[in-house]
Amino acid sequence: MTTTFRWVLWASLAAFALALAAALIADPALLVRATWHGADPLWTVWLPTAAGIALSWVIVTRRQRQELANRVRTALEDHPIGAETCWLLLFLLCFVAGAVVLSRLLDAAFPPQAYVTAVPVVRVLFLFVLPILFIDRAGITRVGASAPLPALALRVNEPWRWLGLLPVAVCVGLVAVGVRDAHMPAPGAFALATLVTVVAISVPEEVFFRGMLQARLELLAGRWSGIAATSLLFVLVHVLMDPYNEIVDLAPTGSPHLLGAAVLTYGPLGVLLGYVWSQYGSIWLVILLRGAMLTLVVAPSVRIMD
């Protein structure tokens, strides 16, 4: 961990602790009543996070992990990491502000619930298209000699990096157990839910949060500082965006409960996704993991099907 940014890890952990403490003071029964989009967080978030991190830790050796970290560092050595990180944070702010403004404009002109079309468009624009175009060719979908990090994330040639499919399968299996009693929609509706969660949510968010932002924060502040800070931003964005969520509300019962529910669910999920990305450096794994987990949880009641 770099000395200059050593405080990032402790500041992120303190922010998580304070947010959770404030939510528990406002709602002492939060730990019992917390859900992740209506599902039991024990099976859909907490157990998958523990299992996914434990398995990934066992699978990847210290030497493999260090070699991957060196390759990421080399891929970004000519990049202005500080400036690019600032630009990414600006795009993140624009995503939240743009989604709120456009949702309200559309709802005023075309009520009700026109925001379900606004949020995906703004998400793809500010978390995917613009970062790819303006972060010095650092977009995760670009390949070639001029973009070694995207090539590293997309061209997974080492067999040990594909072993990440094992923790992904275990995590998804635990979520499937957790929602086994839920009434899943018809195949067509389930396919629509999958399309929304993977294409409109998982791809742009995982490319942005893990493939772009976390990769740079790890170089600036160290591995666990990068994971913690990215996870904190991941939580804050989902707290702010919950009223405009095109899928299912996280916690519609009030802001204290929403904050606590986000810390207890999107916090561990962000750490899981961040750790899987850091261990394997494969964008395919984090997109698959996020998309499958989210689809299983929200498919029974995804809002866009109303």
Automatic annotation (TrEMBL):
GO molecular function, one term: endopeptidase activity
Keyword match Hydrolase: yes
Every CAAX prenyl protease 2/Lysostaphin resistance protein A-like domain range: 189-292
Pfam families assigned: Rce1-like
Listed transmembrane segments: 42-60, 81-102, 114-135, 162-179, 185-203, 224-241, 257-276, 283-302
DNA damage is among the record's keywords: no
A GO BP entry: CAAX-box protein maturation
InterPro entries named in the record: Rce1/LyrA-like_dom
UniProtKB keywords: Hydrolase, Membrane, Protease, Transmembrane, Transmembrane helix
Superkingdom in the source lineage: Bacteria
Name listed for the protein in its UniProt record: Membrane protease YdiL (CAAX protease family)
Source species: Lipingzhangella halophila
